[in-house]
Specification:
This protein has 461 residues and is an alpha/beta fold. 26% of the residues lie in helices and 29% in strands. It is built from twelve helices and 28 strands. Strand 24 and strand 25 form a beta hairpin. It is globular, with a radius of gyration of 23 Å. It starts with a strand and ends with a helix. The chain binds flavin-adenine dinucleotide (FAD). The site of flavin-adenine dinucleotide has 34 residues, from helix 1, helix 2, strand 4 and helix 8.
Length: 461
């Protein structure tokens, strides 16, 4: 039995790990296009800022780990073609072209940062000097080296999670940071606009310049980047912002062209569709992590995998199945996510409101402020919470929490309740742990659930 895994990131390495755990004899080969064994991409912004002292410490599955587990890891080796009839992949690596046969194939090809089509941003089909992407180790090292040369004036285009984490890191390193974006809020794929105010305030207080609702017309400068030209939507005014560095934080696109060529069905946004076994529409071919899409547990619609957690869960399931075992994902992604920016934890689970609006679900939401501790006990931190539930039966659909601490575990707890099909009334009655120095008698989540119950009662009367 031979398993070939294309891509050695979080999803691919985990697939190899669980394929090996499942079967001690199966032949496992991982082809990785870069020179790095599996490392934490999530740690890159913190290695950029120096909080994590060395880029090398981000490596989680070293080449020695692969050797110990008898997994053939080929670095600097790209899979360039696949013949599903002969069940073989064609690779190009340090020793030239090669063919390798497989019984099961796993796509773990991840995603690539997208380059916007803005006048002057590219040179020779590649972002010009002074323009940076931030997806992998080399991107992060190059940006760090560039910023170490002197204090930079940085414009970050977009406010994705990656863009904002880099904004914080570059700011901590002493660079001047401006964020420019088309829409009115930040982190818009992670939280609703009405949950972003504490973050926007924290960013501004830290000294980050935020320019929203404007389009970027051009990158200025002949050789070196000298600035950008923006057009404000509110008054159609044109403005130039001086900068010597541009970071694109506008999102990523799945690497799914190889899968498409072998006939795997793709989602609307180009991700490889998989079932609960992580199998694609082509039998014996699996896909995992950022290149793939699976069902959203709440809306039932296709959702791209976009977190390290999803990548690892999918890697585990595909690895076990590819080596002859039986494993399944839950009935959909919860999309549990968190980050910490400018002193605030921002956590969420389930779809944001715009995704719910696009689905057939009718829903009610309750947004409340509370504290991590009882009001009489010193040191409590403010929490802003939003709970969303089904208008039809009160089932919990999603939750967002923003505050200095205690957000991630609250979102995770609601994730468990969504998975269990529990309702707002169950949350309102949830017996939460209480002691004055630790937590209040009525948790802010339960308070938000009470708000839902009132709205549900009103809607039925
Ligand atoms: C800066 C940053 C911060 C993040 N922070 C978080 C976080 O805090 N929490 C969280 O849950 N998620 C976070 N994520 C997302 C998380 O890192 C990804 O979901 C996860 O890395 C996806 O793993 P993957 O294996 O699917 O893809 P990748 O890690 O992208 O790995 C894919 C690999 O496939 C290789 N490859 C592609 N095509 C080929 C080919 N043809 N031949 C050979 N090799 C190929 C690529 O070189 C790459 O190494 C972050 C991502 C970034 C970029």
């Amino acid at each position: 039995m031979k398993i070939v895994i294309v891509g050695g990131g979080a999803a691919g390495a985990t697939a190899a790990q669980f394929a090996r755990k499942q079967d001690r004899k199966v032949d496992i080969t991982v082809f990785e296009g870069t020179g790095y064994p599996q490392y934490s991409r999530c740690g890159l912004p913190y290695a950029l800022s120096g909080k994590i002292p060395s880029f090398d410490s981000l490596v989680e599955f070293s080449t020695e780990w692969f050797q110990r587990n008898r997994i053939n890891l080929h670095l600097n080796t790209r899979v360039t073609g696949i013949d599903t009839n002969r069940k073989s992949v064609e690779t190009e690596g340090p020793n030239g072209k090669k063919e390798t046969e497989y019984d099961s194939l796993i796509f773990a090809t991840g995603a690539s940062a997208t380059v916007l089509n803005i006048q002057g941003i590219q040179k020779n089909n590649y972002p010009r000097k002074g323009v940076f992407l931030f997806r992998g180790m080399d991107d992060a090292k190059t940006l760090r080296k560039w910023c170490d040369e002197r204090t930079r004036t940085v414009v970050i285009i977009g406010s994705s999670l990656v863009g904002l984490e880099c904004a914080e890191s570059l700011h901590e390193l002493g660079h001047e940071v401006t964020i420019v974006k088309r829409r009115e809020s930040v982190l818009q794929r992670m939280i609703d606009n009405d949950m972003a105010d504490p973050l926007i305030t924290a960013m501004k207080n830290a000294g980050i310049e935020l320019r929203t609702i404007c389009s970027i017309e051009a990158v200025l400068g002949e050789e070196a980047v000298q600035g950008i030209r923006i057009r404000r939507k509110e008054d159609d005014g044109v403005e130039e912002i001086a900068c010597d560095t541009i970071l694109l934080g506008t999102g990523q696109a799945p690497n799914s062209s190889l899968a498409e060529k072998v006939g795997c069905d793709l989602s609307e946004r180009g991700h490889i569709k998989v079932d609960s076994r992580c199998e694609t529409s082509v039998k014996g071919v699996f896909a995992v992590g950022d290149c793939s899409a699976y069902k959203d547990i709440v809306t039932g619609r296709e959702s791209p995998a976009f977190t390290g957690t999803m990548a690892v869960k999918m890697g585990k399931v595909a690895g076990i199945n590819a080596s002859g075992g039986e494993a399944e994902l839950p009935d959909g992604f919860l999309k549990t996510r968190v980050t910490k920016l400018f002193g605030l934890e921002i956590a969420a689970v389930g779809p944001i409101s715009s995704e719910l609006s696009e689905s057939d679900l009718k829903f009610v939401q309750s947004r409340v402020k509370g504290s991590t501790l009882p009001t009489y006990y010193p040191g409590g931190k403010e929490l802003l919470v939003k709970i969303v539930a089904s208008l039809e039966d009160g089932k919990l659909l999603s939750c967002q929490v923003v505050g200095e601490e205690g957000c991630a575990l609250r979102a995770t707890a609601i994730g468990g309740m969504i998975l269990g099909g529990l309702r707002a009334e169950d949350l309102a009655m949830l017996e939460t742990a209480y002691a004055p120095p630790v937590a209040p008698t009525v948790d802010v989540l339960a308070a938000a659930a009470e708000g839902i119950l009132i709205k549900l009662r009103r809607s039925r009367s």
